[in-house]
Amino acid sequence: MSVTERDLTEAEQTELLEEAALQEPDLQEDKAPAGPGDGEDIPVPPGAPRALLRSLLGPHRARVVLAMVMITIQQAALQVGPLLVSYAIDRGIPALRAHDWGPLIAVTAGYLGCAAVATLLQRSFIRLSGVINQAILLEMRRRIFRHAQALSLDFHERYTSGRIISRATSDVDTVRELLNEGLQELLSVILSVVYIAVLLIVMDWRLGLASLASVVPIYLFTRGYRRRSQAIYRRSRTAVAQVIVRFTETMNGIRPVQAFRREAANEEAFAVSNGEYTDANAQGLLSMAQFVASSRATANIWITGVVVWGAVLVTQGSLQLGVLAAFVLYLRRLFDPVDQVAMFLNSYQSASAALEKIAGLLAHEPSVPEPGEPVALPAKTEDAIPGRAVDFDGVAFSYRTGKQVLPRFDLRIPAGQSVAVVGATGAGKSTLAKLLARFYDPTEGKVTLDGVDLRELSTPELRRGVVMVTQESFLFSGTVAENIAIGRPDASREEVEEAARAIGAFEFIAALPEGFDTDVRKRGGRISAGQRQLVAFARALLADPAVLILDEATSSLDVPGEQAVQRAMATVLAGRTAVIIAHRLSTVEIADRVLVMDQGQVVEDGAPADLVSGTGRFAGLHQAWRESLV
Amino acid sequence: MSTQQDSRPAPEASDPSPPQPASHSATRSLLRLWPYVRPIRWFLTASTVSALLASLSALVIPLVLKNVVDGPVAHRDTGGLWRQGVLLLVLGLLEAGLFGLRRWFVARPLAGVERQMRADLYAKLQRLPVSFHDRWASGQLLSRATSDMYTIRLFLAFPLVFLIVNSMVFLTGIGIMFTLDWQLALITVLPAAPLIILCSYFERRYSAAARLSQDQNGDLATVLEESVLGIRILKSFGRHRTMAARYRAQAELLRGTELKKARLLADLWAVIVGLPELALGTSLAVGVVQVAHGSTTAGTLVGFLSTALSLRWPVESLGWLLAYSNEAATATDRFYEVMDARPADAEDGPVRDGSAVQAAPAPARDGIRLADVRFRYPDAPAGSPDLLTGVDLHVRSGETMALVGLTGSGKTTLTALLPRLYEIDGGRITLDGTDIREIPRARLRALVSMAFEDPTLFSASVSENVLMGAPDAPEEALERALDVAQAQFVRALPEGTRTQVGEQGLSLSGGQRQRLALARAVVGAPEFLVLDDPLSALDVHTEALVEQALRQVLAGTTALVVAHRPSTVLLADRVALLADGRITAVGTHHELLESNPEYRELMSGERTGGQAGERTGEGTEDGSLVR
Ligand SMILES: Nc1ncnc2c1ncn2[C@@H]1O[C@H](COP(=O)(O)OP(=O)(O)OP(=O)(O)O)[C@@H](O)[C@H]1O
Ligand SMILES: Nc1ncnc2c1ncn2[C@@H]1O[C@H](COP(=O)(O)OP(=O)(O)OP(=O)(O)O)[C@@H](O)[C@H]1O
Ligand SMILES: [Mg+2]
Ligand SMILES: [Mg+2]
Questions:
Q1: Residue nearest to ligand 2 atom 11, measured at CA
Q2: What's residue B37's pLDDT?
Q3: Poorest-confidence range of A304-313, B106-115, B122-131?
Q4: Which run of H or of E encompasses A420?
Q5: Interface touch B509/A625, C-beta < 8 Å
Q6: Could you tell me the maximum CA-CA distance found in chain B, to the nearest angstrom?
Q7: Residue A18 lies in a domain
Q8: Do the strands B528-532 and B448-451 form a parallel or antiparallel pair, or are they unpaired?
Q9: Are residues B312 and B439 in the same domain?
Q10: Considering only CB atoms, which chain A residues are within 8 Å of B408?
Q11: CB B540: neighbour CB atoms within 10 A?
Q12: How many CA atoms within 13 Å lie on the side-chain side of A92?
């Protein structure tokens, strides 16, 4: 393999390395065929990919230099071989005929020594570059992960999980490919090109310069190729994200997919994304084929030209025959690494498209950001109740898509009060709760906890303050104990079991094959829906927050189970501020206060007993619910 | 899907967990790619031939160059110079063309192979039983569909071709060396023996590491996927750090494996570069001695050594070719682990013609009948009792039966048996008299429509999500279904029924999602309807409205409705109580309330003593919050 792009000087090549940035980084993701995951695209700030690469490479500068030195010496040691061979033949043989073994021994020792040096350096180089590459990849993965975690729900709803996954898997793999294979080749190519170029100019400056002039056309080809492949690889990155989006969505919804016989339709849709992706790859390869062929052709035409001109010079007597002979052989080697350069450029283009996507993700600012200077919640005195006061102050909210869900309102919940929120589905109950849990920031006004704006609290402080059991109970694969311990990772096993016991989940967990150490599998699929809710509930209890939000936390439980939870809540919620959303009004009876919501507005507000005896909506709801009971 | 895997016995299918790396050789694994490679074999051959010819012309061109210098130039022969120049040009263009052709031949075909393999994998996964998906981590499946496939394509594009080309070049070179000086050649070839042994040692170690790294890559994807899907939980508990630490730990494992691979590769390269150099050094010394003694000529020695030096690349390339082939081999293994798994319909008995279900005259309107149905999850520990220990239940045609039971009693499991998402272990289930195992799955699932307790929507429009239940239903059916489910809210959405609902429908409220899932179940006016707790997320008023509308649908449908609340039970004509893995009572709601204390407790929560009281247990008595 071989071939080259000696058109780039060493400095240019280094820059190329650092660049990994594209000339037009502000281009938006190409529109792939409509389908899932076609969320809005994130504009990439100019220079972001380059800055990303620089910051990733930065800490390893010294190692990178060391690696370069190693490979330089190694190449030099390899190049010495032929010189030693000619020395052995010129000097060794005559000396040996004169029974002088000295030169032969020296040459052999020298040869073996060089071989040993080259070998050892090669080995150390591979190890060292492995260390550098892996450190870079680890850091890149870590950043993507942490950033994805820091981004707000609002972002996740648009971007979709599949695309984040594709950023952290497929895109990172692409960069890995460049790091693993590209750099070593590039370095050795540069070295051999520089070495030969110098040699050529020294031999004959006219022919040397003429040969080096081939830089110009090959540079033009390279530029054209890069421009073309840049578009292609961007397409490929977008398409692979589509593939992953579709793939993960199907696998996550395999039950409905099979139950509703979606297989064939899904395959059709998948074939579109899959075809788009492989097609982009094929085009990438084709344009590389074209590039390789045209630069090779240019090189060969150039060689012919230079040889013919050289021959003419020899005929005119201004060039020695011997020089031309040597020149011609070296000239050929100058152009040898064309293939290698093409492969490098190919991985480079592909990786820079990937880096562009990654940089775009990383450059996206969370819309629910951590405060720059966090404020602490006011300290609690010894005997104070654990709850904290909540205040919605002139709050209004609308999701990014759609109309205003919560029109401007004020709401004050004193410390220690438990408030039930009821109302028709879609009224905005969960939205209210999510504002309090700071899943979103209100579009207007502010939500405060003991007088401190939620936006000014650091995440740990906020989560000591407010914890929410969401309407969708999600368990992570891992043991039951691990899932409960998400509430408080440093909790002991006893505390975890105690939390489970408090809501009556202990028995069923203990009855699982391995008790608390049973793996619940992805999304908790190994246990039933009601059991999942119990685990999610136990998790919140363990977290022990000042304000606890329960969004339909018992909707899938059987009646006895629900009652057990309610009895437990009476103790558990004592002194705690609680917001309880429920359709089963039995839950409401343990609350101090009831809010009835309709179309985003609180239409009734009062003690349960008062509302029940009134004539408002709640009285109606309550009546209907009573009737629905046995 | 392709046919080759159907003929295989697929022994791994019943393994409880993803199979461990098999220990067979890389070559055998790679040979399994043949069905995919077969259609493009001529393209691959053409590419290989081009690569060979290109290598040949790379050998010829220097000779021509030498000729130019030695011939026309030395003899000042201008005519000869032009002739040679043209020859050089033609050869050069030929070589360039071949270089391009080598890639051009395979670019599209290989993309086709990758596409086909991925499409087959996807199709296969869709058809594997739910129990398969239960036990495989999602990241493992994803990594097989993406990075493994990429590895395989790359292998076919480069390493495969170069393994062939380089070994030919190598053999030719060795041949030349033997004709030049067989003694020196012997010395040079001698290290081949240890090299082969070392390579096979390396291959084993590297294979294991490559496999490990691919698996760890999959695990990493799993952690990532879960942390993104569970982002609401992580946010609500502020657990980013915990999860990030978990991810990092996993990523560090992967880094460890990758570094191990790098070290193995480094050692291999060292051997592959070092040993031949050692041999060359020795043959140089010996050659010089021979020349000095006159047993060979200096010219021969030079020729010999330059040939040997030119073989450096083919030998050195062996390092990465081997590494790549091993990675592709383990990737192929991973691919076939899924492809070899037994599809859901593998052990179906003779399947009756789908039409038979309707045509069968005798027991036509028999409804749903479960007789002594036994079931346990495949991953239940040995020795534990079955989950369903003999369920007998008859839902008469046109009747709505409510299924009640404690949390975790197996209601959802029972409903999943009807459309054969899981296979029963014993007994039999019949629909209108036909055993469900004799109905083709697609037909069965068209007959039985489901609403799952977890209303999984897909990121598509409202109408696409609903019409999933009946792809060619007319517009009115959609409207009717939305009305039944009281999902009129969709008309207020920004784009009506064409509004995208977001990933998993999460841009809707909980009750909105559930109503769409309900609409999806009823849209096709199915003969059999299975609703798993379909009203749990609805408020009392909406619930009443849905029930009212649903009653009309249910009037002509045979339905099984899982229920937790009396209000939902009232939808049904009769109620069946599931306890201890069997149906312990069937009757109307009021009958059971009267006669069955267990049922009474389940519906009202009031303890009536006896066994039912145990469950709510001690937990509540000392239900203090853990601090
Ligand atoms: N992420 C979102 N993006 C856009 N709109 C949303 C989003 N989440 C909810 N909505 C809309 O906001 C409104 C209020 O939703 P919310 O989830 O607060 O209702 P809810 O009162 O909790 O209802 P339910 O009882 O059904 O859970 C609904 O109309 C819903 O479609
Ligand atoms: N995929 C699975 N693999 C192994 N065991 C499972 C699996 N799914 C459920 N189980 C177990 O089987 C039992 C019954 O689960 P199922 O989901 O059928 O209960 P359910 O009656 O629907 O409960 P709920 O009222 O909470 O929805 C549970 O104890 C659960 O732990
Ligand atoms: Mg809600
Ligand atoms: Mg269930």
A1: A527
A2: 92
A3: A304-313
A4: strand A418-423
A5: no
A6: 121
A7: no
A8: parallel
A9: no
A10: 508, 527-528, 530-531
A11: 23
A12: 26
Whether residue A359 is found in the same domain as residue A462: no
- Please answer yes or no on whether A127 and B266 come within 8 Å at the CB atom: yes
**Residues B379 and B335 both lie in one domain:** no
Q: Which residues make Cβ contacts (< 8 Å) with residue B192, sequence separation at least 6?
A: none
Residues A433 and A355 grouped into a single domain: no
Q: At what angle do helices A263-316 and B41-68 cross, to 10 degrees?
A: 10
Same domain membership, residue B335 and residue B373: no
Q: Which two tokens stand for residue A493?
A: 């096993």
Find the CB nearest B421 among A244, A258, A279.
A258
Computed on alpha carbons and rounded to an integer, the radius of gyration of chain A in Å comes to 35
Domain of B98, in residue numbers = 33-339
State the pLDDT at residue B448: 92
Residue B175 in contact with residue B182, Cβ under 8 Å? no
- Let me know whether B400 and B327 are in one domain: no
The larger pLDDT score, comparing residue B177 to residue A507, is at A507
**Each residue's pLDDT tens digit, B14-39:** 333 344 444 557 888 899 999 999 99
Both B143 and B61 in one domain: the answer is yes
Residue A62 belongs to a domain with what CATH number? 1.20.1560.10
CATH code of the domain covering residue A488: 3.40.50.300
Domain holding A459, by residue range, is: 390-629
Q: Which residues in B96-131 are b (16+ Cβ under 10 Å) and which e?
A: bbbbbbbbbbbbbbbbbbbbbbbbbbbbbbbbbbbe
Spatial neighbors of A55 by CB under 8 A, at least 6 apart, are none
Sign of torsion, CA A462 A464 A468 A472?
A: positive
Per-residue pLDDT at B256: 95
Cβ-contact A550, B556 below 8 angstroms: no
**Can you give the pLDDT at residue A3?**
35
User: Are residues B385 and B314 part of one domain?
Assistant: no
pLDDT digits (tens, 9 = 90+) for B459-511: 889 999 999 878 788 888 899 999 999 988 998 888 888 988 888 888 888 99
Q: What is the pLDDT of residue B28?
A: 87
Distance CA B267, CA B245 (A): 32
Q: Give dist(CA A621, CA A457) in Å, integer.
A: 38
Ligand 2 center to A571 CA (angstroms) = 29
| Any atom of ligand 1 within 6 Å of the Cβ of A403 | no
Name the least confident of A108-122, A189-203, A259-273, A593-607.
Answer: A189-203
Using CA atoms, how far apart are residues B573 and B596, in angstroms rounded to an integer?
17
- Domain assignment present for residue A552? The answer is yes
Question: Do residue B256 and residue B175 come from a single domain?
Answer: yes
Count how many domains chain A has: 2
Is pLDDT of A338 > 80? no
For A310-335, b/e burial (b = at least 16 CB within 10 A) is: bbebbeeeebeeeebbbbbebbbbbb
CB contact under 8 A, A463 and B238: yes
- Residue B1 forms part of a structural domain: no
Contact A165 B225 (CB under 8 A): yes
Ligand 1 atom nearest to A600, measured from its CA: 14
Least Cα separation, residue A450 to chain B (angstroms): 19
Task: Compute the distance between CA of residue A459 and CA of residue A446 in angstroms, rounded to an integer.
Answer: 17
* Contacts (Cβ under 8 Å, ≥6 apart) of A403: B494
| pLDDT over threshold 60, residue B280 | yes
Does ipTM surpass 0.95 in this model?
A: no
Q: What is the pLDDT of residues B539-559, one digit of tens each?
A: 888 888 898 888 888 888 899
The predicted pLDDT at position B74 comes to: 67
Q: What is the pLDDT of residues A514-559, one digit of tens each?
A: 889 999 888 888 899 999 999 999 998 898 889 999 998 888 888 8
Q: State chain B's mean pLDDT as an integer.
A: 83
Does one domain contain both B375 and B241? no
Distance CA A567, CA A583 (A): 17
